[in-house]
Specification:
Number of domains: 2
Number of helices: 8
Shape: elongated
CATH class of the largest domain: Alpha Beta
Number of strands: 12
Order of helices and strands: EHEEEEHHEHEEHEHEHEEH
Helix content: 25-40%
Strand order of the largest sheet: 8-7-6-9-10-11-12
Radius of gyration: 21 Å
Distance between the termini: 43 Å
CATH topology of the largest domain: Rossmann fold
CATH architecture of the largest domain: 3-Layer(aba) Sandwich
Amino acid sequence: MKISVAFEVDDKHRKMGESILRGNEVDWNMKDGLGEIMLVLDNDFPRNEKVRFIQTLKAGVDNIDFSSIPESTIVASNAGAYSISVAEHAFALLLERTKRISERINETKRGIYNPKETKLLYGKTMGIIGYGGIGSRVAMLSKAFGMKVIAVWRSYRDGNADEFYRMDELDTVLSNSDFVLITVPLTRKTFGLIGRRELELLKKDSIIINVARAEIVKENDLLDFIKSRSDVSYLTDVWWNEPKLENSGIENIAVTPHIAAGLSEDVMDMVYRQAFENIKRFIDGKPVEGIVSRDEYLEMGSRKQ
């Protein structure tokens, strides 16, 4: 089959793709017309009835306009490709907040010796909303720190979490967690999932970590709640209307500039390999991973609160 690539790929990952897709024509510059398969990066790619399968390099697809993609075309996200990097980033946010590393280092650099208490992770409960590749990885890290793990799951389960709950049991997870990780994809069902009512269920001194999409949390509800509850922290790698950072300077909010995916060479090796291998599965007639459900897809331009 012919595979058309809709963006520039470096030589290293071209060689990887040619090795995995050996025996199939790969058009790296889309000079010879569309093939039956496309590898895309964002929304900038041609639509055509001829295309049977679209593989995205990114894990999220909320930046893609599906309205002009034929219904017959299968679209697969690269879900899970960035799981290790994002899970590590989530834990870095948690450790930084509980141990106050940056604050103490900044003080000692100024000659201030100001030892203060820190918080233990051991014995705490990690609640995970969205138990996929990232959630499972965070669960594994949490268990290594001696934490209990409870999770909202949909289809994937493993031995890293202690208890699993359905989405309609979200209240139970929120009210019993010391730390809450948000890692569900943004869909029609998860848009605005966490609002004032849900936030009010949180325990004292809770920490929320969002490495998914900002719009899963209702902006005004979160900001009002955080201002009224100085004991609760909101740590996030995503922000509403980013790169704008309006209202992000509140004391108990910490924001990183959408860097959880890492995008380092070792991360991108995993990302490209997973995408190419999923394309190979489609070519070989094997079940592909990450197929996007159009019924749940959140249309572009509808992410306003």
